[in-house]
Write a structure and sequence with these properties.
Four copies of one chain form a homotetramer. With about 350 residues, chain A is of the alpha+beta class. Chain A has a single domain, classed as 4-Layer Sandwich (Chorismate synthase, AroC fold). Chain A is about 25% helix and about 25% strand. The longest helix of chain A is centred in the C-terminal third of the chain and has 23 residues. At the B-D interface, β2, β3, β6 and α2 of B face β2, β3, β6 and α2 of D.
Chain lengths: ~350, ~350, ~350, ~350
Amino acid sequence: MMTYGTRFRVTLFGSSHGPEVGAVIEGVPAGRPVDAAILQSALDRRRPVGRRLASRRQEEDRLILDEGVEDGVATGAPIRLHVANTDVRRSDYDGIRSTPRPGHADYPARLRYGEAADLSGGGIFSGRMTVGLVAAGAIASTWLREIGVEVVGYVRSIADVTATVDEGIPIGDLRSARDRNEVGCPDDGVATQMAERIADARRAGDSVGGIVVVRAAGIPVGIGEPFFDSVESAIAHLAFSVPAVKGVEFGAGFASARMRGSEHNDAFYLDGGTVRTRTNHAGGILGGLTDGMDVVARFAVKPTSSIARPQETVDLARRAGTTIVVPGRHDPCIVPRAVPVLEAVVAIAIADLALRSGALR
Amino acid sequence: MMTYGTRFRVTLFGSSHGPEVGAVIEGVPAGRPVDAAILQSALDRRRPVGRRLASRRQEEDRLILDEGVEDGVATGAPIRLHVANTDVRRSDYDGIRSTPRPGHADYPARLRYGEAADLSGGGIFSGRMTVGLVAAGAIASTWLREIGVEVVGYVRSIADVTATVDEGIPIGDLRSARDRNEVGCPDDGVATQMAERIADARRAGDSVGGIVVVRAAGIPVGIGEPFFDSVESAIAHLAFSVPAVKGVEFGAGFASARMRGSEHNDAFYLDGGTVRTRTNHAGGILGGLTDGMDVVARFAVKPTSSIARPQETVDLARRAGTTIVVPGRHDPCIVPRAVPVLEAVVAIAIADLALRSGALR
Amino acid sequence: MMTYGTRFRVTLFGSSHGPEVGAVIEGVPAGRPVDAAILQSALDRRRPVGRRLASRRQEEDRLILDEGVEDGVATGAPIRLHVANTDVRRSDYDGIRSTPRPGHADYPARLRYGEAADLSGGGIFSGRMTVGLVAAGAIASTWLREIGVEVVGYVRSIADVTATVDEGIPIGDLRSARDRNEVGCPDDGVATQMAERIADARRAGDSVGGIVVVRAAGIPVGIGEPFFDSVESAIAHLAFSVPAVKGVEFGAGFASARMRGSEHNDAFYLDGGTVRTRTNHAGGILGGLTDGMDVVARFAVKPTSSIARPQETVDLARRAGTTIVVPGRHDPCIVPRAVPVLEAVVAIAIADLALRSGALR
Amino acid sequence: MMTYGTRFRVTLFGSSHGPEVGAVIEGVPAGRPVDAAILQSALDRRRPVGRRLASRRQEEDRLILDEGVEDGVATGAPIRLHVANTDVRRSDYDGIRSTPRPGHADYPARLRYGEAADLSGGGIFSGRMTVGLVAAGAIASTWLREIGVEVVGYVRSIADVTATVDEGIPIGDLRSARDRNEVGCPDDGVATQMAERIADARRAGDSVGGIVVVRAAGIPVGIGEPFFDSVESAIAHLAFSVPAVKGVEFGAGFASARMRGSEHNDAFYLDGGTVRTRTNHAGGILGGLTDGMDVVARFAVKPTSSIARPQETVDLARRAGTTIVVPGRHDPCIVPRAVPVLEAVVAIAIADLALRSGALR
């Protein structure tokens, strides 16, 4: 449903083609700074690539803080915020009622909700619902920063182009490197190739997917609630709520399957007075609890479902095969836009669990 | 924490070296058959490979139904069941209090819970906690079968050996093929190689990981709760509670990242009167809802953390590096044993969501 | 926090002096009628007595359905609705920051939330938060009516004036009798006395409390979830969220304490083919489950905390005793306005539990 | 269902005539003392009056701590505890399958759960389920005591006999006075009359009800979660889970309905440096938050449903009226036994909310 979290709780509202999208955020203590500019900045990173660099700034995704923040400070009441949907074209979606778009929720939603279903632009299945998630994540990230936790995501691969990123570089450097290009990949050369793959897909009326990595550094040891509320469970639960995410792995992830225990187990050693591990195949999580190493999560993002090319589908009303050309404006690659969303996922999951374990107060 | 689920709710209890492990299961309607033999059979599949074929049957993992079932039928009250821990050797674990085992929860648990932590055999972090999960899953599976849903898991890879399994074969045939060998891989030839890899690891005092696939066939369209309680979220949440799972993907999963939208989108067509998709890259889930195709989930299982070889670690009391030889009995590969656990994960997640959507009653 | 319910779920948002108050309502199936006029009518009943009869209709509490309803029918997506706060006078509340009003949440809120607390008009502690609850209750009531359940509340007492109401009269007649006067008491003569008590209090710059009864007729047998989610637990949980409610009882309630078991136990008999009880001391609930008799709940509503008379309090800044004359517009009796709120409480609690038991679908 | 609580979480298991009853308790931090003798003492107070004084001590209600406590200290893992049901006579209940006992859950349970329902001794509807609640409450009380909170309950009335108890006496004195007699009423003279009423009822084959008061002193200001998780909501939710509770009120409670605002509002004043209120009509709770004054809750306990006298009921199988003489051993008054149960209710509710607000750690 629309609510996630125990202590740091997010309730999303709105829909892709209704008047607005937003969130109610509970659990932020009175007196905590909530900087609208930081939230806006996170939302701006979520906007389509290319539009960000554009000089003619459209008044889009302008964050409104409705309640719970006064003079930049949380009042202790639930924080409500929203972004208006200014560019709604409902008529674009008239055709999809009986001819579901491949890759979209149209077909199961139609069977679940029947004739009354609002499928305009994906309704509540739209990626636009993540606006509230990103804003909530920015609040969580700001808070986590106070206990030394930094959450940084980047694009690791797009289509067949994969960056090799040293997981050992300081997280501030990682963020800087990522921000040097529009794709959000910390390797500029690779980012250029990625941008080409996106341009190729656009020209072909097609789309490409990719992989996003999110690292969280400075994590206290022992966050997580065994058995069912492990750190991995919380992050994966939230991540798989995000449309287009089809895989989640931590540390060595699927590569673990090919490793031997003697290779996979991260050996402990003392680095100065600090216990660290020589490798981080566990992705910073042992037994569902953080072990103090960076939490490293990787997310598979499928290629955008809306493409310009004709696709085979079924006309449900006529019960006959047909071809659809999906209406609306297409984004040939949402992977860079997924970065702030998946940073939000990690920040919200960790903030909620850190509140539960007492690491965050 | 120890409870999962809204309508079909499981609360696990016990610990690896306490008197017992078990579960309280809520949401099973009065009058529904609960067959102790089916539950026992699922538990037997969870026992170590090799032991299953052994002639001298030890009286282990004997399921006791304590409450909520009378004469093979649910009474409507919560079902409580347990398995006694008969083979507990606490002294094996005395050494690990100050020298955490690599790959285990010892280190974060020690920092979280301090001196008082009970780490014997992993305490509540042990894979033994999955006993209750498997029993609950067997109840969920039985119930789902009444609406035509079949849940079958198998071993897809162990170490570098991977089976190529036709996802199109009938699920009953898949189960039969899987049950022909002890490894639980539907390709006998490959299973033999897998068994060799396991034997190799055992001889080397080491361990191997692998990948488990779970398919659920016969799924009604439209199960799942947007936004946060998508089918993927529910399955991944539960799966990442299971010790050793480090990755979860659905359908094409991480391979989606390299695909184009025109390739990834599953085209709809009419198969007789039924809407189907020509491919199943979505793994049976669109927008978080089931689309009627098989739900296909893949899980990365890391190599067993307990190995016989000496490992580098830290003596927390002396604040000095040291070497540990992990005590206890080691299982060189838990992947086959993870199959019934991950079947349970999928069955419980789907049963809970099917109850919420009204598909199951 | 701001969310209640498992299957029929209500999340309230807004605050008394922010831009709006409203609710997100989940669990209403696609295709179900949602009549804005019925919702508006419930909200109108929640407005101050006297204003309702006034000829010059102010455009207040005008319900806006933002999402989830199209052409009077639920789309299956969450329903979001709100009412604008048009008559906000924040300056009225400047004085209360350091001098808490007796009977209000000001003092504990100030200590919990500190300087940052937004106490304007009670913030989230205001009775105005019940706007969303009333709208959600109207949706629940409409739905319950389809399975024959009618929920009707009335004023039983105000100050020392108590009506004697025959619990056996048909619920439709009860509603009609209640609606004949502005106080909402089914006995017109008594209602006149109640109105006098309210007028007396107003003249004295004071306020009066009272008791509200809510009956739910036509209830199916067996709704409720043992142990912790009994029907009484659900209704009381919601009722005690409503500001000003200080007591809740069911059936004979506190009078049970003086009864003998032989008197209190409701004898079963056959009325035609229907099992009924000769009395209803249980208030329609046995063992936390509905028994088919009317659910009868009584709620104690304290006198309005905001009164015009000077009151003793403490200046927290100066750490000295002082006197406060509470600013803002006062309502000498909120008991009649609490009727639709407490009807909503009963309807939401029963709808959520009826969905869980399968009685509502 | 069987689980309550967010941070301090209790899951009850067992049934009245199964092998045992008990609880799994989560949220108790590692290192916290858990004294089995204190828990046992709370359970002993829950046993039938008269039996407590008996010289021939039966081995009943002997608490077993199964998990989560080592050497009197919590390990951080869930605490599991149970009490065996040693004195089960299932055959006593054969007759009630088709002839529901007035005042019991038999009738709605039979309709909800059908033929399969286990009604022996009330099954999960039995007061015996409160064993786990009392043990959990003793753990919560012990913990709360560390931050200066004391929870003490007593019997205020039985049948028509009511004690006048000065709410201002120190809570330690209240406990001592209560413990001087077997009834649990702090006024010995009144307690003697109460014991007579109980004896009268027993002789008459009947039963009597009463009122229990629970006071919590030393409460920090600001505990509670607006809107839906007010302190009153939490306490009432738990209290109405307890069989036989039919009314809950706080502070002036139902008497508030007759008061004027100027009388009901508790004036603030400075007592030394401490803000206090001159009266406590609010029962220590304003706007759902604690205000630092004693939390005072009153609970109506109905007369025991099981009485020896013949009662009118219906034979559901024959669809005909009949008379039942309820089998089993009857307790003519459970009010004294309800005291430790309702103390547990208040302690658990406050502990959970104090953990959420940060007042307890």
